[in-house]
Amino acid sequence: MHSFAPEILLVTILSLVVLSDSISARLKIPSVFLLLIGSYLIYTYAKMAVPIDLKLYFDTVILFCIPLIFMADALHLHFSDIKKHGWSIFYLAVFAVALSITAGASLYNLDLFEGLTLGAYVSLFAINMATDAVSVQSVLSRFHGISHDIKVLIEGESLGNDATAVIAFFFIGLPWMMSGTIDAGDATMDALRVFVVSIGLGIAFGYLFYMLMKLIDDKRGELFIFIIEAYLAYLIGEHFHVSGILTLITAIIATKAWIDIDMKSLKDVSEKKSKTFLQKLRLHGIDPTTSERMEYIYEMAKEFGYIAAVVIFFVLAEMVSLEKFWEYKTEILIMFVVTTVIRALSMAKFAFWGNKVKHIKPVGFEGWFILTFSGMKGALSIILVHMIPASFEYKELFEVVTTGVVILSIFVYGTTLWAYFTFFKKDEEKKLFSH
Q: What does the record say about its membrane topology (predicted)?
């Protein structure tokens, strides 16, 4: 007899998405709340609707979902926005995350989590400082009055934040935690190697697929080119033992940047008359796509990424154990409060530098508030904590604490933003930056 488990699971996931979106639109609440609650209720009271043990096939599920999630996020960054806010994004995504992980690890001296080594603290905070763009966008998309600038910072920070957290976890925290010792110089050089090689591979992939886009002349084919690029960039990056996520993000952003440059050039008559060396290198004059087709690609990529994130939420729901949450309630609350305070201080420092450094734009109090509470955790944190070897003595602590922090961050941060935009912010959308 045939098994219809895959079909049943697909129907369950799509039905939950449709129902969550419908209720969310009527009640004007973020759909991610309903997705999390719905996933848990289905796993608890309607197990027949999920006939496949997703946790058993976690690695396969993750490998399938990661490229779709990050491709969708990367496509939303425009080259003009990266040029304008590049230093701000770099601070938020790299410098601030590194400082946050360091600040969290320094709490080792206070012995907040009994028995954990310094390397374990680095790993734990690398896992729990990673933000989730899907959760953030699900919440913020319901609100009006958020400027384009803040959306760019949130999207850019989320993508770069994830890449930084992955490098810190896999190439510093995890080896340190499992071996008990690490050479700081070697670890730093290895992290820099991974950063540089990942970006280099990503740029090469971005150029290759940008040129391939010139051979395609329909929106569906172009969408599939981006999907192929995302999967290949991720797999090649992992194959060469660097960051597949950073390689993927760089590749998609690079391809998209060259497309943006071509589209801008179409409006510049002078660029059509004379070609520079770089324009010739890009085969300027052979356009890779159109703005109308890119809009289609944006929408479809967003939907693919959303469905992939829902699958991750289903795995998260299966990992939820109320008994374990109660057992580790103190550790969960400590981790949630500490990561929230660290993020608030990190964003406050960003706001301070905005008034002192010309390359970083000032964001003001409102920008600090939104950036602080847009630090919701999600799919990547669950992915990273799962990658810890089963032999690690405190893996259960890591899993329960991380799952609890993910859920708390989504509901507490999301509710805070929802309350602010629903009851307190009444003025029309305005520019975030004062100059």
A: Multi-pass membrane protein
